[in-house]
């Protein structure tokens, strides 16, 4: 999740977010099975960027509304997720910290079995239950009850999807389908979806070893990507896949000569192109503009190279993740 999210989102989420998945017992899942988790795209009133929302359960909780965040890892629940601790959930006194929007958020570690669309995890996971803060109050006012972080990197909590049985816990795709007006739309998190044989771009993040359950970890917050922006030479460096970021961020000394306007945003009409390393073509091309979540690009021309793709990537492509092989791919 890119910093500045809550401040940029503002307002209140519109309407009912999503149909709640059934609780169900653990599903029998074999190789080749896919499960489509519906996503509803919600428009943020200030930026008009779109964010994906779905529902999950932890233990025997009621459905919990969560943002689908590929830019973080772990389940982090707001104080409004429940009034009393549900059956099947154990709360500890162990403290945990998460930095979001520049705010250092505090909370406690809880444990419970994760469920989504009727699928139940094979073992309990640790999650964060946040203390009340300005950030949680702002997010709660928007109808958010938690953040479902489904990135592949090593952080202080596990990816809940990896507790699911069989291939549904090792492979998935994310895609957003905005409506024509750009005011909302639908999307899907498809569990068990295999990486396509033919892709427009393939990224291989560096390994970060295994987690405590033997799940492979990969640094998808710094995959190598190549960027051609405006008239400056191509820049290859760390590329961060983040479905919650309302604008693309290009950071580093190599971007210092890019023309920017108010707020450090790239001048409208500047060409932006991205490719995988050693590719002979650019998989993604667009011209910068004023629309958050579509073509808005912020420039920070100092430090090491880092490009946050923003949520726009997930509307332009179906993004596939393979935790076992450590691969992220883009297809139309």
The CATH superfamily of the largest domain is: Acid Proteases
Distance, first to last CA? 24 Å
Low-confidence stretches: 3-27
Output the helix-strand order.
HEEEEEEEEEHEEEEEEEEEEEEEHEE
Q: How would you portray this structure in words?
A:
With 332 residues, the chain is mainly β. The protein has two domains: 191 residues, Acid Proteases (Cathepsin D, subunit A, domain 1, Beta Barrel), CATH 2.40.70.10; 101 residues, Cathepsin D, subunit A, domain 1. It has three helices and 24 strands. The chain has a 15-stranded mixed beta sheet that branches. A seven-stranded mixed beta sheet has the order 20-19-16-17-22-18-21, with no helix packed on it. The longest helix has 8 residues. The chain is globular and about 60 Å long. The two termini are 24 Å apart. The N terminus is likely disordered.
Structural features:
332 residues; 2 domains; 7-stranded mixed sheet; Cathepsin D, subunit A, domain 1; disordered N terminus; mainly beta; 5% helix; globular; 24 strands
């Amino acid at each position: 999740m890119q910093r500045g999210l809550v401040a940029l989102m503002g307002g209140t989420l519109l309407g009912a977010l999503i149909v709640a998945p059934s609780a169900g017992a653990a599903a029998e899942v074999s190789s080749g099975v896919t499960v489509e988790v519906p996503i509803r795209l919600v428009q943020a009133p200030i930026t008009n960027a779109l964010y994906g929302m779905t529902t999950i359960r932890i233990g025997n909780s009621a459905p919990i509304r969560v943002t689908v965040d590929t830019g973080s890892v772990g389940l982090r629940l707001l104080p409004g997720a429940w009034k009393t601790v549900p059956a099947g959930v154990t709360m500890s006194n162990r403290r945990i910290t998460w930095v979001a929007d520049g705010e250092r958020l505090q909370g406690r570690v809880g444990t419970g079995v994760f469920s989504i669309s009727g699928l139940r995890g094979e073992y309990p996971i640790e999650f964060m239950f946040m203390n009340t803060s300005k950030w949680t109050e702002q997010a709660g006012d928007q109808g958010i009850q938690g953040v479902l972080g489904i990135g592949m990197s090593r952080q202080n909590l596990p990816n809940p999807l990896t507790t699911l049985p069989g291939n549904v816990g090792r492979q998935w795709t994310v895609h957003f389908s905005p409506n024509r007006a750009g005011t909302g739309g639908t999307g899907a998190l498809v569990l068990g979806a295999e990486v396509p044989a033919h892709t427009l771009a393939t990224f291989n993040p560096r390994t970060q070893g295994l987690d405590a359950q033997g799940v492979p970890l990969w640094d998808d917050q710094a995959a190598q990507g190549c960027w051609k922006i405006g008239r400056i030479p191509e820049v290859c460096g760390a590329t961060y896949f983040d479905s919650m970021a309302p604008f693309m961020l290009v950071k580093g000394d190599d971007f210092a000569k890019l023309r920017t306007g108010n707020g450090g945003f790239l001048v409208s009409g500047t060409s932006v192109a991205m490719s995988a390393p050693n590719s002979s073509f650019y998989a993604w091309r667009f011209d910068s503009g004023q629309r958050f979540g579509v073509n808005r690009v912020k420039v920070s021309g100092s430090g090491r190279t880092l490009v946050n793709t923003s949520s726009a990537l997930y509307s332009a492509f179906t993004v596939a993740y393979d935790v076992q092989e450590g691969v992220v791919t883009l297809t139309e």
